[in-house]
Amino acid sequence: MAEKTLLRGRLRQVVKGVYWTVTPWWVRQRVQALRVRFAARAVDVQVAFWIEREEARIALRRRGRAVPVVPGFDLCNDTEVARAVQASGRSVFSWPPVQPEDVTDRWSAARWLIDLWRRRADVRARFSAAFLAGGIEPFDAWLRGAAPQEFGLSASAVQHLVDALHAGLGARARQVFLASDGLMAVLPQGLTPVGMRDLLRWFSDHAMNDAGLRPEEVAWLFVEASQDPRRELMLAYSFAPAWQQAHPDGMTVFGRDDFATWFAAEYGAVGDWVDPSGWPEWETPALQLRTSYWARDAWRAAHPNALLDKDGARALLAWLSSPEAGLSMPLRDWCHRLDADAVGADMTRLGANVIGHFCYPSGLRISAESMVKGMDLAGLSTSLRDLWTDVKDDPHHVDFRGMESNDVTIIHVQPEPYFGDAFRRAQLFQRSPRTYRIAYWYWEFDSIPESWVEHARQVDEVWAATEFVARGLRARLSVPVRTLFPGVKLAPYEKRERAYFGLNDEPFTFLFMFHMMSVMERKNPLGLIRAFKTAFRPDEPVRLVLKSSYGDRHPAQLQELRDAAAGANIVVIDQVYSPDDVLSLMDACDAYVSLHRSEGLGLTMAEAMLMGKPVIATNFSGNVDFMDDSNSLLVPYELVKLGWPIPPYDGHLEWAQPSVEHAAQYMRRMYDDQAWARELGERGRRSAETNLSLHAAGERIAKRLEEIRTLRRARA
Hints:
Rossmann fold, alpha/beta, 716 residues, 6-stranded parallel sheet, disordered N terminus, 4 domains, 34 helices, single chain
């Protein structure tokens, strides 16, 4: 019944969109989310046949009947491939034959490699994992060595082949599959041999048009999946909450036999790939033990302190190695062979599970990444889970598949619109017994929305990056609120000339970067434009660069920005840059300016300071936790009411109105005395390196996690 309810519930979730339409506070963010969700639901309707079939399978199993064996799918058999996609009449493998002389770019190279794999049994036998991380290097060496002579490949063709081999061409297609809610509910096994027929049909019918995928990307994913079905089954488990719930330690040595037996019976799977004796160990011994400890009541009852101290961990291992625990002889031997001291230390290491935007290009992503880096430096254990956000997410959701293996879960997700949906979007079953939950939230005002109060009831405490944010949260929330700065460190980036960004070299260049989804009125680029126009004549060799992203979703505001910039030496760049390009652009400029009306943290200001750029910023909100008159130029302001709702903000809230005149004076001073500006930037860099340290942030988090563990030990 639970599985059937889950299936129908996925389709009914579209009704929730109605609520959004009558709550005006988050309209701008929600409109795009609704578009994505309704598009996904439209595809769900088209997989209704699979929903009915899944319900029939569940009913059959409930009656104790066997599911018919599903024969393996031969991706190299054109007849089988054609039969799989016969409803649409299209196939992702339907391109004309590619000759060696036709290999002139990445995509023709991909087609040639896919055809080679499908047509040549000897190549498949010799390079069985050619498209996978563990098998790429031997295949690469063969492509560079023997293949050119055998196939008459030119040097440029070989380079295109090698580039395609290392490009991860199946990543976007996999992400589309994982992000398709309705499909994942009924076809989590889609990339395994028992699901490939159906998934190939779905991709042929929908994904290339609806998701903008190239056929080579889809075909590459299927070839990759066919090369290691064991891995695909284990990955499928990682993103199937219903499977995780039924078999919470299904990827451990303790639970995988039961999971494999269940899977084979449920889906009619046969073959070596469902024999767990041939599976690699998915996680470290310590992590497997932690996972099974939380999955098994008997273990916790017998050893309640097993994860609290090393003595408790060693006692658990000794018990598991004995007949008293009731494990099979091979499992007892597995436990006995472990280094009890080393594994016990790893089992009891402090740590946290983190659910966050690890693939969404945003300040929230950088904050989550910084927090995790700080925790790593402090020696903490982390288990990471990406929360899928948007079709423009980086295609690495599959790389974040950690379970709730630690005692504490940090949900680094804003309350609206995804917090209540965090586990579903992370495709993660909520562990039972429940972890100690911490919300990590940003806000830009001294009063929070009423809906946040309800979200806070789902957690045990809330963390904020700055005191400015914490004060607003403490005023309304009954749970504890603590200030724990995530730390900031510049990621490695490539230094690039200004020409890379379409900019000429000569003018002194001010920069401001912002995200259109973060509310343009709050970021206040129009005020910055006025200050720049006040400070400089159009004929002076000085320039302002405004770097925005997602302007295509806010075309009216983007046009307003371009209109305001007209007539001055102002460049508007609206593109989604990679993290590397973002920092490269900042490095290529001379100074950074933010006339924000309010900031929860002010990440770009912190990054500019770490880079040694002089910074001008509004003397208000989160940035003043690390900025003062000794390390930057702070613009005075007046507090003003918004006056009218600017979603997601209510009209009665107050934010800063920075002085355009003072900002203009500061910009003028930097331009006129550039040696002084560089010295200010150096003072800012030294200050930021001290105050924004990732290591210090990690130590603060470790201290709080130790306090939480002490409280838990006292209650045990």
